[in-house]
Amino acid sequence: MAVSYKRLWRSLVDKEMSKSDLRKKADIAPNTMTKLHRDEYVSLTI
Description:
With 46 residues, the protein is mainly α. The protein contains three helices and no strands. The protein is globular and about 30 Å long.
């Protein structure tokens, strides 16, 4: 099953946020943001 984060990117545009703003506010590692940008699967552990 393919992963797509298009809804996330649209939401950022609607909220006038950049990807770096999201990364800083959500405390996401740069390599995870790269995977999101490439539409790769990201596994998050709790």
